[in-house]
Amino acid sequence: MATSGVAVDRCPQCGANLPSSDSERITCAYCGSSLIRQRPGGGQEAPAEEPTGAWGVHLKAISCVDQQGIGIEAFRMLIPADWQFEGGVQWTMNNPGMPAVVAFRAYNPQGVEAFEAFPNLPFYWTNNPMLTMTFPAGSFYYGNEVRPPAPALDVLREIVVPRYRGQAPGLQIVDRERLPELAQQLRANDPSAGAGVTSADGARVRIRYQLGERDVEEDVFGVVEVSQVPTPTFMMGAMENVFWMADYLFSFRAQAGQLDSLSDMFMAIVRSFRLNPQWYARTMQTSQYMIQNQIQQIHHIGQLSKIISQTSNQISDMIMDSYNQRQQTLDRLSDQFSQAIRGVDAYHDPTTEQNVELPSGYDYAWSNGIGEYILTTDPSFDPNIDSNLNWEPMKRQP
Ligand SMILES: [Zn+2]
């Protein structure tokens, strides 16, 4: 009986010992997971009834609405319940090929853990000397930065990391990896022959730096897609326009040494990311409208609204193919998290009649029907105890 205070609570995500706590929700100080504990039944129990120490991992869905442009949900995704979300859709106004960019951050406000999606970086290059005189490297050609194409690994090292983490104290690249399989699949599955993607390449770099007092590690992923458009010219033979893009740029950050224990959580975050097909279709139509009508720049928000009002909820086959391609590429990227030890499991959510992929390694999962999930290894865990929400157990899918 004399077990005074030696009950050890462990984080179900990373296995770290948790400080004893009588609160129902905590954030693991080692991995940043949002944890929830069921209340001891009855509420008014004698103090002898100590909390059992059964913690569940708690996730929530966030929905990001495109306030500036189309006015509907642009995407949704799952993040740890106590993390915060910032960013969303930005209309760039000066790039008809890419009028809207998505950039955001989901992060643990009490720690260093974060998932970040960086804006796509569009580039342009040409072998036309007349054009390179007017648009030298470093300038912008219709919203595209003028720069020769490069492999994904170089783009991450030389452009993405310096641009977004260049100021970080102690910054060093500790690991790098080409993801040629990903590039191969991208090429094989490119549905939009018209878009003319002639090559694709993927990579990952792991960086380490200091954030406040902490040493952190961050994995940065990206894909480079290159479209070469030969243009016959009168005087100089065939000139080539190269439009290329650094795409699917995102990163995971954790305390140094902890990234791998969170890889399944990050995998679940990426796989839960769903662009709204309606939003995607209307964004693509806006782009097509601007290109067809040779609108190089949107001058004010009223003009943007007018163009958007020309778009419809119709989703053409081409747009649907391209939408599916984006989702599949994200799933494939998430499969590449090199140390993904546990991966994800699919569960059937009876409240939505849909499957949802959650970090694996837990035997029990619950849904409350409003986008929140709890994962636990404890069979006696029941989030309905003393809760005014209705939690339903979910079945793991084979
Ligand atoms: Zn933890």
Structural class category:
alpha+beta
Specify the number of helices: 7
Assign an overall shape: globular
Radius of gyration: 24 Å
Let me know the number of strands: 22
- Residue stretches low in confidence (pLDDT < 50, at least 5 long) are 1-6, 42-49
Taking the sheet with the most strands, its summary is: 10 strands, antiparallel
Q: How many angstroms does the end-to-end distance come to?
A: 42 Å
Query: Residue-averaged pLDDT, rounded?
Result: 86
Percent of residues in beta strands? 35-45%
Helix content: 10-25%
Q: What molecules are bound to this protein? A: zinc ion
Task: List the helices and strands in order.
Answer: EEEEEEEEEEHEEHEHEEEHEHHHEEEEE
Characterization of the model:
This protein is of the alpha+beta class and 398 residues long. It has seven helices and 22 strands. The chain has helices spanning 129-134, 152-165, 180-188, 263-272, 277-292, 301-309, 317-335, and strands at 9-10, 17-18, 25-27, 34-37, 55-65, 73-80, 84-91, 100-107, 114-117, 121-126, 140-141, 144-146, 172-178, 197-211, 214-233, 237-255, 274-275, 344-349, 354-359, 364-367, 372-376, 392-396. Strands 3, 4, 5, 6, 17, 18, 19, 20, 21 and 22 form a ten-stranded antiparallel sheet that branches. Strands 7, 8, 9, 10, 11, 12, 13, 14, 15 and 16 form a ten-stranded mixed sheet that branches. The chain has a two-stranded antiparallel ribbon with strand order 1-2. Helix 4 (263-272) packs antiparallel against helix 7 (317-335). The longest helix has 19 residues, at 317-335. The protein is globular and about 80 Å long. Bound molecules: zinc ion. Zinc ion is lined by residues 11, 13-14, 16, 28, 30-31, 33.
